[in-house]
Amino acid sequence: MEITPSGLRIASAATATCPSGVLTHAMGRRAFIGGAIGASSLFTAGKLFALPAQSAPRLLVVFLRGAYDAANIVVPVSSHFYYASRPNLAVPKDKTLALTGEWGLNPALGPSLYPLWQKKQIAFVPFAGTDDTSRSHFETQDTIELGQPVEGSRNYRSGFLSRAAQVISGDTPIAFTTQLPLCFRGGASVPNIALNFVGRPGLASRNADLIAAMYQGQELAPAVAQGFAVQADVYDTLSQEMQAANRDAVSPRGFEQSAQRIGVLMRDKYNLGFVDVGGWDTHVNQGGAEGYLTNRISELGRGLALLASTLGEKWNDTIVIVVSEFGRTFRENGNRGTDHGHGSTYWVLGGGIRGGQIAGRQVPVTQANLFQDRDLPVLNDYRSLIGGIMRKAYGLSQAQVAAVFPSTQPQDLALI
Amino acid sequence: MSAFRPVLTGLCLFAVSLAASAAPPAKPAAVALADRIGWGGGPPVADPAQYLRDQLHPSNNDGLPPEIAARIAAMPISRMTLGEIAEDVGASRLALQQQRQMAAANASSTAQADPQRNPAQMQYRQKLTDYARQAAERSLLRDIYSKNQLREQLVWFWFNHFNVNQRKGVIAAMVGDYEEQAIRPHVLGKFRDLLIATAFHPAMLQYLDNQQNAAGHINENFAREIMELHTMGVGSGYTQKDVQELARILTGVGINFGAQARPRLAALALRAGADGIAFAPGRHDFGDKQFLGQTIKGSGADEAVKALTMLSRQPATARFVSKKLAEFFCCDAPPDRLVAAMAATFLKSDGDITQVLTTLFNAPDFTANLGSKFKDPVHYAVSAVRAAYGETPIQNLTPVMNWLMRMGEPLYGHETPDGYALTADAWSGPGAMETRFEIATVAGAGRPSLLLADSTPQGRGGRGAMPTDAQLARLPQTPPPEMKNSPYVQALTASIAPATRDALAKARNPAEWNMLLLSSPEFMYR
Question: Is A55 at the interface with chain B, CB within 8 A?
Fold first, then answer.
């Protein structure tokens, strides 16, 4: 099996699923734990991250970097053109799980997410994406993370989640990534943490204070202070969970492990989150009802189901939006894979949403309806879609939505 | 963001009020230039003009300490051709396949399913990772000890520009040759040579799927990334049609380590001795192509050389590559006038990298930005080792590779072809800063020691994966490095900010002093 490596730009959950390499994630962390561990003034300051009693709904954005092949996951089972276009890759209708008359779910998501569909806690939005037609992973990922109109110059210091954090009151944002993602840049410093390296704070409190003092008045001062605070905070929140996990015979790995930790952190501490998952750029041998892509999506589904169960009753006020930069070519390529396309399918999950539906504007999946006779079209713009969800979920005004997504009409998908 | 964010109380509110105006502390000129042209942490420069000339026109002698030079020469990757490495890896893979067939015949066996319990599979993987580890050690040793610091920085820069990832396929066994043969000879030469050498290396062809690209079975992946990431840049005017035509041009360029494939190289007029590249006429699309407004006659492998040469001469390529060099060597947002001057040199000199860099290094914008570029993790780690150990040969690079992994920038480890980010935004988030301070703590203490050979089984045999944390913690210790007295640190601390000076004065022992210096704002910038 081969996939292209274009899937993962910001190392995060997905890297933990990589085949063993020279350097693995398991190593490293404990080597950095210093001898002296204490609770400093900075660490206790981290407690202030705790959610206020009347908290905003929880929102997690999951970014599938690398452009997952949506058509083989939420399958247009009534389209003859789909089966004609993918002689080697199509998922047979009788293998899918029925969603509606037109759409079926890839069986890899049966055990994990089909129960959520039956409980009306997940909806799918086909024909979703951007008006960026560069077909470049990196360009279009940036487009989505910035959330600015494609026309005109880009401000790389203003991501859409950063702007959302400014208009949503009572939010506690965090990125579950090694690097701070573009979507959270700009505005105030948003903490980021790599969930596969969570360990005890490696610095004595005295040293942390000395370091913070060196940065007083410097541009990096907020990041430095927040770095100490969030590290201690995340460790405190997860330590119980990690000890429990260590006693388990089998502890979750890869995205499942990250998802479980996200569940704990969003249950107890944070309510506006971002995580990215890579490995979707399937130019070669992606498989159909079985194979590489279904293994990958299966892991994602198990992770999301674990996230839901970990959140417990908080799942009811949680919304998860799964996005990807674009869909793939509707027809399979010469290598039993798919190339860069346009329209994708986004997912909306949550205990309190009106799920169990295929939402948004739709057209029959035919050759005539393809974009440039190549890709699924985009009928549901990601900015309208996410803006519409935010508007309902947080009760934002039109002006507030416009602050997050300028020059966009929020779309009401009737999911909230 | 609104002021309610509660964590930013106390010291942070004070910081916010000053943040807009605060620049990193100015460094002494003798330190600033070497910190930028080189990896940083080296001795101050006596004659800046002479230093620049030497760096731009390096001799073949890298001035490595003899012990380091001998260690590099003794590495298997330094003594084997890529063909020999491929044979070695192929033999292991064959053993693995045979073992699998036997296991399949013995259907009750479950051991085969678990790679940890499958010796042949473990051996195969260890072989692959061992080759990549050798390459990383060689590269880091040169970064730390070479007198030709600019060349070594450019090796990292161009590898990153033409990125491949060791986790895909058997690229782990090929990254050493890729860096040594496709990148390193050309880093100060013509851009066209770099472009062609990387495009015709099996590591790149495997990474971007071109070995699958054949007439009637087009795979666009490599063509698109060449145009988007290696040459012109996205949005520079090429079309989806250009991508498709370049993909057709590249059909049939693939990998073949068989002996009969080697003579084909001569036909491609590529570097002598290159292994593993083959042009398969049967897989090539011999039709004419319309590429960037010109007709390329269907003729075979030389179409690719023609197309790459065309790409190397595009004004968009000159701008794109110049801007990236300026981002790396000057500033996160290089001024248009600087990029334009570099691009003009690029076009005038047919992509002569030394000349483009000469334009850059002599520009007022370059000088004005010295000392204000945030170090990415590789710069941070390498400069820390250089400042701490100077010419003393270190014995154990495992901790350094460990730091890089934790900071998210291991060698050969970036998954996607865009390479690692070159700007501060990507590396200076709260989580990243905290990680850096943890690394300053262990690096400052010299724990585990870099001066004692890695005596873990993995380290001794140079085999396979990295030692575990527990193994590393059990290694014998040495006293912390004497950073305070190094020429670099003495020159740096001569002009250190009062807040840093105050913190350093509170250090209770050498390890703490080192930790604070390595954590200081002064050490975060180059």
Answer: no
- Comparing CB atoms, the residue among A157, A227, A284 nearest residue B433 is A227
Q: Where are the domains of chain A?
A: 58-197+252-404
- Counting Cβ atoms within 10 Å, is residue B196 exposed (0-12), middle (13-18) or buried (19+)? buried
Tokens of B98: 């045979």
Residue A36 in contact with partner chain B when CB distance is under 8 A? no
Taking the CB of residue B517, how many other CB atoms lie within 10 A of it? 26
Give the pLDDT band (50/70/90) at residue B117. Answer: low
What are the tokens at B139?
């590269």
Q: What mean pLDDT do residues B186-191 have?
A: 98
- Contact call for residues A178 and B410 (beta carbons, < 8 A): no
Residue B259 pLDDT class (50, 70, 90 cuts)? low
The SS3 of residue B156 is helix
Classify domain A58-197+252-404 by CATH number: 3.40.720
- For the segment B451-486, what is each residue's pLDDT rounded down to a tens digit? 988 777 666 544 445 566 667 677 778 899 999 999
Mean pLDDT across A346-357: 97
Tokens of A331: 């027809």
**Interface contact flag, B19 A222, Cβ < 8 Å:** yes
Taking the C-alpha atoms of residue B317 and residue B191, their distance in angstroms, rounded to an integer, is 10
Edge-to-edge strand list for the sheet holding A380-381: A173-175, A272-277, A58-64, A318-324, A344-349, A122-129, A380-381
Q: Give the per-residue pLDDT at B277.
A: 81
Q: What is the DSSP string of B492-512?
A: HHTT--HHHHHHHHT--SHHH
Which one of A19, A156, A223 has the shortest CB-CB distance to B429?
A223
- What residues are paired with B214 via a beta bridge? B217
Statement: residue A200 has pLDDT above 90: no
The interface pTM score, or ipTM, of the predicted complex is 0.87
CA distance B523 to B382: 12
Q: How far, in whole angstroms, is CA B333 from its chain's centroid?
A: 21
Position B21 pLDDT exceeds 60: no
Q: How many CB pairs under 8 A join A and B?
A: 309
Q: Give the mean pLDDT of A78-87.
A: 97
Touching B: A residues 70-129, CB under 8 Å: none
* Radius of gyration of chain A from its Cα atoms, rounded to whole angstroms: 21
Contacts of A298 (CB under 8 A, 6+ apart): A108, A109, A112
Best of A214, A233, A339 to disrupt the B interface (most B CBs within 10 Å) is A214
Instruction: Return d(Cα A187, Cα A189) in angstroms, integer.
Output: 7
